[in-house]
Design goal:
homodimer, alpha+beta, Jelly Rolls, 4-stranded antiparallel β-sheet, globular, DNA-binding
DNA sequence: CGGGTTTTTGAACGCACTCAAGTGAAGTGG
DNA sequence: CCACTTCACTTGAGTGCGTTCAAAAACCCG
């Protein structure tokens, strides 16, 4: 394990070096935007950070739930074993994303979350958050929005059901692109932090299919690909593939 | 439309005939279980009911969000159009289920919800609920649990991705069965309120596949089927199919 | 450089889809 | 009461896509 400091409760809110008020992902995360006093208070709540090395586990399925986490920097994935026991990727997380929301119901984590690269997360004690929400209706509302957004996100993935492999892959690439855009990074060129196997587990395709589809996208001139470095050369075509408006399907 | 009474705000909480305290689905729904005073207050909040005929729309996608709804009796489905515009069923709702949670984020409904049969729903004004949650931390916690459970439910469906058609169908039948059991109905014998087409839209299969699979389940002696009336003759086999532990797959 | 992992590529199979026809029950109007 | 329509479901035949199995190539890290 890699705990830099002990998990403190609400009693000793020693401020951590980096505060939410100056965080780049602030607008996508939980801390209140407007009120300065509340912002300071939230810093005290979420001040503790935890560093993770690549492949290090943040929390494991069935582990008892006490903290929510927000990505400060880096990338993580969440996996859940299916009925057969095979792991299935339920989400990829990047800066500002909230993790652990699915643990509130049962009081234990429903998924295992792992760092895809060296990362840092902010710890948000759930008990403290509840208290803070009681005192601050705007914070409560932000939290409800975050939960609702997570439901929406999963509904969107859920609708992959009757999409072809090419459509699912296009959907993932465009999703990543738009999330990088939200964060001020290039929506055209980015690095795929996850392995082909992770992409397959996420989309319900095999690793071979992912590889073949990426190859066909490259051959069609829709993307440029160098290992995990990707550039979306023709977003329009990718979108058209999803919409099915395009007369031209993927050549291949 | 079919509004029996005007939508009142918090100012005129005229109690409706049936109260949450006596509702059969109370334990599965939002109202607090313990405190009698809070229970009465919640009755005032959620007292208004709305009746729906079969095929009547409760709310439509993009409609602005003001109310959450709970199923009092009857069954409903929620659908969302995919990128192509084809409707996709995201959930089937029965007594006690909360609807509209996905609308909190954007302030507009993300799906369209329709009655599968004559039904009645309880209206829960979101603004009033927020106020009530501010006054009652236990209610707030129940609400967070409900949101978290919805996330879990969708994750479970999301993992259908790499299941075969037979496995997906078994999963749906067992899910319905366990939900009826929770509500005190028979887990063995029940009525499928939705059409084969709805089941297909939900599971990502065609109507023909649903029909064939139900036929194979029947021929294998795992279920008895009379139109929409179904009896699970061998739950063990259905479960074994999902777990993949069973040596015997579905004969076919 | 070598050993292990990740990714790519090839060939054949099987499942769910599409297209097409047919059955059955419920509802309508003469 | 019976033709007719309509809708929901069933059944059959053929195809295509993603899978499985198998092997080679590229990459990473010691």
């Amino acid at each position: 394990m890699n705990e830099l400091m002990p998990h403190a409760g609400m009693l000793a809110p020693v401020p951590a070096p980096a505060s939410c008020t100056h965080c780049a992902a602030r607008s996508l995360c939980l801390p209140p935007a407007a009120d300065a006093r509340e912002a300071v208070r939230f810093d005290g709540l979420a001040g503790y950070k935890r560093r993770l090395e690549r492949d290090e586990v943040l929390f494991r399925k069935d582990q008892s739930f006490a903290m929510l986490y927000a990505v400060h920097f880096g990338h993580l994935k969440s996996t859940r074993p299916d009925h057969r026991g095979h792991p299935h990727v339920t989400a990829f997380h990047m800066a500002g994303d909230l993790m652990g929301l699915d643990a509130i119901y049962a009081g234990r984590h429903a998924c295992t979350t792992v760092a895809l690269e060296d990362s840092e997360v902010c710890e948000i004690p759930y008990a403290g958050l509840q208290q803070a929400m009681h005192d601050s209706p705007p914070l409560m509302e932000r939290f409800h929005c975050a939960l609702s957004r997570e439901i929406l996100r999963e509904q969107a993935v859920l609708m992959h059901a009757d999409l072809s492999g090419a459509e699912r892959l296009a959907s993932l690439l465009l999703d990543l692109s738009s999330r990088y855009a939200e964060r001020g990074y290039s929506e055209r060129r980015f690095r795929l932090r996850m392995s082909r196997a992770d992409m397959g587990d996420y989309l319900g395709l095999t690793i071979e299919s992912i590889s073949r589809l990426l190859g066909r996208f490259r051959d069609a001139g829709w993307i440029a690909l160098d290992k995990r470095e990707i550039e979306l050369l023709d977003q329009q075509r990718l979108r058209a593939l999803l919409a099915g408006t395009d007369g031209h399907a993927l050549p291949g």
